[in-house]
Specification:
The chain has 363 residues and is of the alpha+beta class. It is built from ten helices and ten strands. Helix 3 packs antiparallel against helix 4, helix 3 packs antiparallel against helix 5 and helix 3 crosses helix 6. The chain is elongated.
Length: 363
């Protein structure tokens, strides 16, 4: 049962120069089991040398301002990569899909064995029927007079087939339990602004922590489609990009392949209760050089949105290149460059001597 959700409700706490906070959310009745949109942000005075500092409400950084920054997209790229790795590696969805697909194949295989066995009995091919069930050939070959004896012997081979079919159907009938996944990505950013006239004011912002969190419940809804998706054969654009020479090098710095794969990443899966949460905190420092005034405010904020807000095309978070990754890069790069080398000219024998020629004509 889903509790009714109503709102939004806005709540603001303003303490002048000391602090400011505002939040926007929704209310619901018990059992409080529905995610909803939520947003809150504010600022608090840390230090000030000004006799009359400005209002704290003038130093807030809203979630919409942080959403559009490049560092936020980097954190989102990192979180999205982790979410996909949880689905493939740790949540065993690939194994689950394989088991379901295997059950379908088991039913097909065992049903075909039973059909072939029945046809062989009708034709009096008892040895063939026994080989199908992988049992010794029954001693009594007359299907009418010794049917009871024959059935007891054939039963040893038929019963396992029927049990296999039953177990396979039972596995398909039981839905796969959803997995609750949580993936996070972090980033930071600094920027500044200077206004020379008339008071020579400089503003410095530092968001020491920007965090993106994805969470959702995921289950396999179409095993065959999920298997095909896992093999990377359902997205032509992604496959075409992988075939571009040296494309893997660019993917280390820009999320091209991941961006192209967003259209099909969840094909074959049922994603529910999904949400994206942005959290950040940092500092806003303002300096008035003419008067010698310096004010410092701590800023913070968070916003939760329903659904998965996917990353856009952009730079990946900068990581140090490990020696293993460096060796891999060098070896892959050498192989790619080698494949781009022009073909060596062929040689043919002419008038007792070898004469070089190429595909474009004799040299």
């Amino acid at each position: 049962m889903v509790a009714p959700v109503y709102g939004p409700f806005v709540k603001t706490l303003n303490r002048g120069i000391v602090s400011y906070r505002t939040s926007t959310g929704y209310k619901q009745r018990p059992p409080y089991n529905v995610d909803s949109n939520y947003s809150a942000y504010g600022a608090g005075l840390q230090s000030s040398s000004r006799p009359y500092p400005g209002q704290a409400s003038g130093y807030v950084i809203t979630p919409s301002q942080v959403e559009g920054r490049a560092s936020t997209n980097q954190a989102r790229i990192q979180a999205y990569d982790k979410l996909k790795s949880l689905i493939v590696d740790k949540s065993s969805f690939g194994e689950t899909a394989f088991q379901l697909d295997k059950s379908v194949k088991t039913i097909q295989k065992r049903a075909l064995q039973l059909a072939t066995f029945t046809l062989a009995i009708r034709r009096g091919q008892f040895r063939t029927a026994a080989n199908i069930l992988r049992i010794p050939e029954p001693r009594n070959r007359h299907p009418v007079r010794e049917s009871g004896s024959n059935w007891l012997e054939y039963h040893l081979g038929i019963e396992p087939l029927v049990k296999d079919i039953y177990n396979a159907v039972d596995l398909i009938q039981h839905p796969v339990k959803p997995k609750h996944l949580v993936a996070r990505g972090w980033a930071s950013e600094k920027w500044s602004q200077y206004n020379p006239a008339p008071w020579s004011v400089s503003n410095y912002w530092e968001l020491s922590k920007i965090r993106i969190q994805y969470q959702c419940d995921v289950e396999v809804s179409n095993p065959t489609l999920w298997l095909a998706n896992s093999l990377g054969i359902v997205n032509p654009a992604q496959v075409a990009w992988q075939l571009v020479p040296l494309s893997f090098i660019l993917d280390w710095f820009v999320n091209v392949e991941s961006f192209l794969g967003q259209a099909s990443d969840f094909w074959g899966l049922n994603v529910t209760n999904a949400s994206t949460t942005l959290t950040y905190f940092g500092q806003w420092k303002e300096t008035w050089s003419v008067y010698g005034w310096i004010s410092s405010y701590g800023v913070y904020g968070m916003t939760r949105s329903l659904g998965l807000i996917l990353p856009s095309l952009g730079k990946r978070p900068v990581k140090a290149l490990s020696w293993q990754r460096g060796l891999t890069a060098v070896s892959l790069l050498l192989n790619e460059l080698k494949s781009l080398e022009p073909e060596k000219p062929l040689a043919r024998k002419k008038r007792g001597k070898f004469h070089k020629f190429s595909l474009h004509g004799d040299l």
